[in-house]
Each structure stands twice: as structure tokens, then as C-alpha cells.
UniProtKB/TrEMBL annotation, chain A:
It is a multi-pass membrane protein. It comes from Fodinibius salsisoli. This is Phosphate transport system permease protein. It comes from the Bacteria. Residues 67-279 form the ABC transmembrane type-1 domain. Keywords: Cell membrane, Membrane, Phosphate transport, Transmembrane, Transmembrane helix, Transport. CDD domains: TM_PBP2.
From TrEMBL, chain B:
It holds the Pfam family ABC_tran. Residues 30-271 form the ABC transporter domain. GO terms for molecular function: ATP binding. InterPro entries: AAA+_ATPase, ABC_transporter-like_ATP-bd, ABC_transporter-like_CS, P-loop_NTPase, PstB-like. This is Phosphate ABC transporter ATP-binding protein. Keywords: ATP-binding, Nucleotide-binding, Phosphate transport, Transport. Residues 1-23 are annotated as: Disordered. PANTHER family: ABC TRANSPORTER I FAMILY MEMBER 17. It comes from the Bacteria. It comes from Fodinibius salsisoli. The lineage of its organism: Bacteria, Pseudomonadati, Balneolota, Balneolia, Balneolales. CDD domains: ABC_PstB_phosphate_transporter.
């Protein structure tokens, strides 16, 4: 009996440690390969050059075009997801009947479980042609369409986390606001949203982090042309899409071109890591106000 | 004889010694007529009629669950948000039925302010808390708002303590200060009636004493209805006392009489602490 308990405990601990070691392993490999890359390419060039052409004969290793592409699609995505997601959260929390909320919430979550390759296909084949009717100069591959579709995909992130934040605001504040003669709208926007602001900011940051790391949609619908600039109508390439491109191509193992994906990967990792930490910090720092 | 605030209607004075129940005297601020309240199938209030006199303090006492908070919240329609709430009867404010479909609930709540059991300031600055009621009315005049904020904080006897840090977070104040801030916030929109739902039950004795002093002072300008668990408090501050039991009105009358010589045994037993 005692031995059996001990074995079970060891197995459970092992399972927990596997995830930790995997993370450490990934970071380690990223770091080692990136160090290999930076021994051949100066970090100054990496951070300042506006050309990213490691696969061409005229080689240039500036990450900025990939960053601008990532930034562009992410900004478009969040400017779709934040207003829509927040509106949904406010509606669910302040207006919708309990019954309707119970029906709508699981339906919304479906958006998050649609495979991203479906979204990518959807962006390329449906959204882009649709947008072309308004913006004739839009390229077949562009940042706008996958940005919008990615925004739709992350709406449930924003809406469900913001709704959690809103519903954790004590009812006494809502009562105080109504008691002062506020309308529902005033109560929602002048009391509830400000009181839940830390949670709403966290939801937005996590959504941004998700959008930065999103791969399939942009790989399919944004094109594969690293381009430094902020024009949403032309083909661009994001960090993630570049990594896909190189991983699938026939780049020789161990070559400098091969190592670029680790440099790009660690850049991506640093961004999402920082964002996740900021959101964690905001949560810890501001969210115990009402306890 | 006290002078009423200009906001509370045409009548200027009140007489404390007149009969209080079922009189047609016009100094009644609020009148409840044959009130039944239901939450789903449960009847919380059974056929209560009573009148609340202008510029007086009316205390509602009774054991937990007797319906005193429910009854208080009828006056500013705060029960409207509770699932399954329904009612019969009429509540008249200065002669007008406040449950009439034509009544604008937001306007009603500007006339009938409420202070809650637990201090519930908004997570904003002290200044913005008091200014809130003016801002939602669309008032933009900075000087007017500032003047009203200062005036209300003074009225709530909080100004001296906070005058140097009006931009400080309201949640940084002590519980007693927060509750006085909530009073200032309510006073800033110049209501004529103040409803208080156990306003001192979450506070220490010193803060409680300050709030009680404040309530007694406010009586000069406002009609006050207060729910309290604390018998001594009801005895100290109120002019009239309503004793409710199991959703029914047991006794309503002059506080001094209720506390020294109640008509009903049940009232006697409750007040002397034999039950409840």
C-alpha cells in the first residue's frame, strides 16, 4: 500500500516535471541556436536593417520587416477584437437575461475552437475578395484580411475574460450607481468598466499575445513578402509565417538560413513572454482592490 | 421648527406632535398603501400601509428577514432588479405614485437618495465620487461641481478630514469615512428623501456615533427612513419607529412611546431583547 502510494506520487511528479523540462528545453535550444546566429550576424544589423532576405543571394538579416508585419496584423486584430469583445462582455453582464447569457456564452466559445487553418482559408477565399469590393487596390495577399479574421478569432478571449472582470465587480457598486439615478448605460460605462479596467486590460494584453503568436491565418492569407512598412493592403510576412516558410522549405540543416528561424523564434518568444508578464503583474498589482 | 430645503416641495414646516398614522395631513412625504411584495411565490410583505412624515427620521426595526430592507427599497424602486419581484399597492411620493408607468425611475432616484449597508464608494477619487451624480446629469460647469462637492462634503462632516487630498482614492479612506463619503455623494444631487439601509452596521462605535450625529443634523433638511438592527440606535435618533415582523406591520408610532410603552407584546419582547 505504502509502496503503491509512493509510486503514484513519483508518476504524478514526473508528469508535472515533463512540462517544466520541455519549456526549459525549448528555451535552451532557442537560445543556443540564436547565439550561433548572432555569432555570424551582428545584433545591430538584426535590429536596425529594414531588409529580411536570408533566402536570397543578396542576403540581409533585419528583423524589422517581420516585426512590422506582425505589428500590423496584431493591431488590426485587436482593434476588431477589443471593441467587439468588450461590447459583448458589457451586454452579457449588464443587459442580457440570465437565460440568454447561458445560451450565448458557449456559442461564443465556439469561435475559439474553430481550427485556425479554417480561419486562414476563410480569410483568403472569402474575406479578401469581399474587401476587394470596397478597396479595389487590395492585393490577393495582404495584412488587412487576416488581421480582421484573427480579430474575430480572439473575440472570445476578450469577451470572456472581460466578462469575468466585470462580474467580479461587487454588485454594491452597481447598486450605488443605480441608487444615484444612473441609467444602465451610465452604470456600465462610468462605473462597471472603470472598476473592471485592470481585468479588461489583462484580457486585451492576452489577446494581443495570442495574435502575435498566431501562425496559420497569416501564413495562408498575408503573403510571404517581408516588407518594412505599415500598409495593410499589400502582402507582408509575420515572424510566425516566416518560421513556417523556412521550416517547410529545403533549407540545409545547420546553415545560417536555418538558424534565422531561431533568431526569429526567440524574438517572438521575448515579446509574448513580456506581454504575459505584464498581464500577470497587472493582475497581481491591481486586482485585489475589492477583496 | 425647522426649515426645509428648497428641493423638497412647497410645504415649509412640520409639526412633530400630530397623529402619525392614517391621517390626511399634507405633511406626509411618502405614503405606502396596501403594499404586498412577492419574490416568486414567497410573500415578503403583507398588506402594509404607512405614511412617512416630512423632515423626520423614521426607523424600521425587526428581526432579520422581516422585510424591513425590502420595504425600504420600495421607495426608490431598487427591488425592480431582483428576479421574481412583484408587488401590489401604491407608493406615493408627494402624492404621486412612483410605480406609475409614466414615472422616470432615474429621476425618481435623484429625489430619493440611498445609503447602503456596506460603504460602497466607486473606485475613483474622493472628488469624483461626490461629483458622480452631477456628471451623470450632464453638468459640465467646473466651478459649480467643485462648489457642490465641497458643500456636500461639509454637509457630511467629512470635508475637514479630506480637504487636502480630494484626488486621493476613495477606497483608501477608513470605513467610517467611506460611509460619510457615500452620504456626501448622495447629498450632492440634493434629494429630498434619504433612505438608509443599516448604514452603520459595518462600522466601529466611533464612526457610528459620527454617522448618527450626522443623520440627526440632516433631519433638518431631509426626510429620512432608516433600517437598523441596532435598537439603541433607533431609540437615539428616530422620531418614529416601525416594527415589522414576518413581513407584517406590528406597530408604528412615536419612537419614545414604542420604546417605553408599546401597545403590542411582540414589540415589547423584541425591544427588550427577548426574541429576534
Amino acid at each position: 500500500m505504502n509502496v503503491k502510494e509512493k509510486i503514484i506520487e513519483k508518476i504524478l511528479a514526473f508528469c508535472a516535471l515533463v512540462t517544466v523540462f520541455t519549456t526549459i528545453g525549448i528555451i535552451l535550444i532557442l537560445a543556443i541556436e540564436a547565439v550561433g546566429f548572432f555569432s555570424q550576424v551582428s545584433i545591430v544589423e538584426f535590429l536596425t536593417s529594414t531588409k529580411w532576405t536570408p533566402l536570397f543571394t543578396q542576403k540581409s538579416y533585419g528583423i524589422l520587416p517581420l516585426l512590422s508585419g506582425t505589428f500590423l496584423t496584431t493591431v488590426i486584430a485587436i482593434s476588431v477584437a477589443l471593441p467587439v469583445g468588450l461590447t459583448i462582455a458589457i451586454y452579457l453582464n449588464e443587459y442580457a437575461s440570465k437565460r440568454f447569457r447561458q445560451i450565448l456564452k458557449p456559442l461564443l466559445e465556439i469561435l475559439a475552437v474553430v481550427p485556425t487553418v479554417v480561419y486562414g482559408f476563410f480569410a483568403l477565399m472569402i474575406v479578401t475578395p469581399f474587401l476587394k469590393t470596397f478597396i479595389p487596390e487590395l492585393s490577393g495577399f495582404n495584412a488587412l484580411s487576416p488581421g480582421i479574421v484573427m480579430g474575430i478569432m480572439i473575440i472570445p478571449f476578450v469577451s470572456s475574460l472581460s466578462e469575468d472582470a466585470l462580474s467580479s465587480v461587487p454588485n454594491s457598486l452597481r447598486q450605488a450607481s443605480f441608487g444615484m439615478g444612473s441609467t444602465k448605460f451610465q452604470t456600465a460605462f462610468r462605473v462597471m468598466v472603470p472598476a473592471a479596467s485592470s481585468g479588461i486590460v489583462v484580457s486585451a494584453i492576452l489577446a494581443v499575445s495570442r495574435a502575435i503568436g498566431e501562425t496559420m491565418i497569416v501564413a495562408i492569407a498575408a503573403g510571404q513578402q517581408p516588407r518594412f512598412g505599415f500598409d495593410p493592403t499589400v502582402p507582408i510576412e509575420t515572424i510566425t509565417a516566416y518560421i513556417v516558410q523556412v521550416s517547410m522549405g529545403d533549407v540545409p540543416h545547420g546553415s545560417l538560413a536555418y538558424k534565422t528561424i531561431f533568431a526569429a523564434g526567440i524574438t517572438l518568444f521575448i515579446f509574448t513572454f513580456i506581454l504575459n508578464n505584464i498581464s500577470y503583474w497587472i493582475k497581481e498589482r491591481y486586482q485585489e482592490e475589492y477583496e | 421648527m425647522e426649515v426645509k430645503s428648497e428641493a423638497s416641495g412647497p410645504k415649509a414646516t412640520r409639526v412633530k406632535t400630530e397623529p402619525r398614522v392614517n391621517s390626511e395631513n399634507q405633511t406626509y412625504k411618502l405614503r405606502a398603501k396596501n403594499i404586498d411584495v412577492f419574490y416568486g411565490d414567497f410573500q415578503a410583505i403583507h398588506d402594509i400601509s404607512l405614511d412617512i412624515i416630512d423632515n423626520s427620521i423614521t426607523a424600521f426595526i425587526g428581526p432579520s428577514g422581516c422585510g424591513k430592507s425590502t420595504f425600504l427599497r420600495l421607495f426608490n424602486r431598487m427591488n425592480d432588479y431582483i428576479d421574481g419581484f412583484s408587488m401590489n399597492g401604491q407608493i406615493l411620493l408627494e402624492g404621486q405614485d412612483i410605480y406609475d408607468p409614466s414615472v422616470n425611475v432615474e429621476e425618481l432616484r435623484k429625489k430619493i437618495g440611498m445609503v447602503f449597508q456596506k460603504p460602497n464608494p466607486f473606485p475613483k477619487s474622493i472628488f469624483e465620487n461626490v461629483a458622480y451624480g452631477l456628471r451623470i446629469q450632464g453638468i459640465k460647469d467646473k466651478d459649480f461641481i467643485e462648489q457642490r462637492v465641497v458643500e456636500s462634503l461639509k454637509q457630511a462632516t467629512l470635508f475637514e478630514e479630506v480637504k487636502d487630498d480630494l484626488d486621493k482614492q476613495a477606497l483608501a479612506l477608513s470605513g467610517g469615512q467611506q460611509q460619510r463619503l457615500c452620504m456626501a455623494r448622495t447629498l450632492a444631487v440634493k434629494p429630498s428623501v434619504l433612505l438608509m439601509d443599516e448604514p452603520t452596521s459595518a462600522l466601529d462605535p466611533i464612526s457610528t456615533a459620527k454617522i448618527e450625529e450626522l443623520i440627526t443634523e440632516l433631519k433638518k433638511k431631509y426626510t429620512i427612513a432608516i433600517v437598523t438592527h441596532n435598537m439603541q440606535q433607533a431609540g437615539r435618533i428616530s422620531d418614529n419607529t416601525v416594527f415589522l415582523y414576518m413581513g407584517k406591520l406590528v406597530e408604528y408610532g412615536d419612537t419614545q412611546k414604542i420604546f417605553t410603552n408599546p401597545e403590542k407584546d411582540r414589540t415589547q419582547n423584541y425591544i427588550t431583547g427577548r426574541f429576534g
